[in-house]
Amino acid sequence: MIITLKQNAAQTEVSRLRSELEAQGFVIHPVEGTRYNILGLIGDTASLDARQIESLDFVDKVTRIQEPYKKANRKFHPDDSVINVGGVLIGGGHFAVMAGPCSVETPEQVIETAKACKEAGATILRGGAFKPRTSPYSFQGMGPEGLELLELAKKETGLPIVSEVMDISQLQYFDNVDMLQIGARNMQNFTLLKEVGKLNKPVLLKRGLSATYEEWLMAAEYIMSEGNEQVVLCERGIRTFETKTRNTLDVTAIPMMHELSHLPIIMDPSHAAGMSRMVRPLSLASVGGGADGLMIEVHNDPSKALCDGPQALRPDQFTSLMKEIIALRQALVECTK
After folding, report:
1. Do residues 9 and 130 both lie within one domain?
2. What is the pLDDT of residue 229?
């Protein structure tokens, strides 16, 4: 349930209402918006008389939320959320580009790639240290040593870093990582979601391979319900009947998530297509569709990559793409003036 307050609502009256509702066992989630303020109620509101609350002089209206996700709901938080990742803002008109290797391999590889990404205009360095692979015989990542190399690249470039955590036991190694990534395979690892929800650290939540929009937002709700509301959604392609590409990038998710939720949404064209030649058109389509950012794989030598080399861009390709992304975003801004 959402209680929308009138602009001239007296704080004493609002506090009194909050106290009464909290005494009945409801969790109150106040939101101060640019247009109006609301009180979001979490709990079984079936017994509450909406008309009685609406009769209060300082209440504008009462709305019951039918969707199971509450904190992630746009109705609960009308304004766009803006997430701060090591000084880089995502959402609310702020666009971020996360770029780097799928997997950290050597000091030279990660630092050379990180420097190239920053020079091209990337704002966040991505890199995998713990890798969930379909085959148990594939390279699984460098583990804690890989995170140390990412931290070294962070010191060299100043770029904040995002990396995937696969298990609660790994969280002890992520103190110096600016943003935690929950991969597609762990989108419904509810124990992990609740644990990262207890941390004061931004979380990048990738959509599961076959997850619906509601399932995706409910995964975000698990994180937010524990107190951590710094969530960024990431569409990385879903499984369909098409086999020419690894996955199908659901560009429709951009406007739909902006409609359903206040959380930022970024796109991962690299994992969606699985082919480097598809990254450019999918990236530009995502920008045109209104995405709040991109996650792009870049490797200094894709032919020698230990993980997902065919979908990684070379630094020169990424530089060219960034020029197009910047130009397209500027053109879109001009069109809205």
Report:
1. no
2. 96
> CA of 53: how far to CAs of 2, 14, 66, 203, in Å?
11, 11, 18, 36
Q: Are residues 329 and 215 in the same domain?
A: yes
Q: Does some domain include residue 70?
A: no
| DSSP letter, residue 100 | E
Supply the range of the domain harboring residue 237: 83-335
How far apart, in whole angstroms, are the C-alpha atoms of residue 195 and residue 261? 22
Q: Are 148 and 284 found together in one domain?
A: yes
109, 36: one domain: no
Q: What pLDDT, on the 0 to 100 scale, is given for residue 224?
A: 97
Chain centre to alpha carbon of residue 304: 29
Contacts of 239 (CB under 8 A, 6+ apart): 209, 210, 247, 248
Three state DSSP letters for 105-168: CCHHHHHHHHHHHHHHCCCEEECCCCCCCCCCCCCCCCCHHHHHHHHHHHHHHCCCEEEECCCH
Residue 126 belongs to some domain of the structure: yes
pLDDT under 70 in the chain at which residues?
133-134, 136-140
pLDDT of residue 140: 63
- At 270 the pLDDT is 96
Q: Residue 73's pLDDT is what?
A: 95
Task: Compute the distance between CA of residue 162 and CA of residue 159 in angstroms, rounded to an integer.
Answer: 10
